[in-house]
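ok so i was messing around last nite and threw this chain in just to see what happens. nothing serious, just curious
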Amino acid sequence: MLMSSLPNDLKTLEEDLVADPIRISAYHDLPFAIFCYDPEDEFELRNLLRLLVFGLDQNHDKQVHFVSLAKLVWKVISEQEGIDSLITVEKTRGFKAGQDHVNSLLTSPHFRPISDEVIKCFDGLDPCKDVVFLVRAGGFAPVIYRPSVLLDELHQRTMVPIVFFYPGGAKGSTDLCFYNLPGFGGVGAYNYRVKVYGAKE
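result:
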């Protein structure tokens, strides 16, 4: 059994977060990074992140703020049309229609774009001190919403450093595969010009 690479990958991330200037991206206008991990390591990652956050706070005066994407997805569903409406759509029209329905809630300007919900969590944060960890991306699975769309939407809307914890693996040399699902890549990491931690081809 192979040992998890999470501790080493997180150590590298920590070193880049506390560097001056921060090293998670080579571009000053794009303070993003993607941390790729095996979906099976979800609970191990959560435990290790608690230790990482404690060290960043105590030793480097960095304040880490967790933003759960899954919680935001369910918040939008509950406050827009309600969970009962989603259940009705799925029962009457099928699972794909249910996913499409949620996607509309998360993308249409007539509802609650998820990028706007995420940005609200940045209110009052200081780019020099604060860091945001986007976690629980499973709320977008299997194909409710593409993570790449969120990163596009956040670009140039904040300078607070962001690390997107991405459950999935490498697909070829230029893409990541969300939840390791066949036929569902779409991050195009190199197109984002961001550093990708933990990606293994």
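not much to say yet. The CA atoms of residues 75 and 175 lie 30 Å apart.
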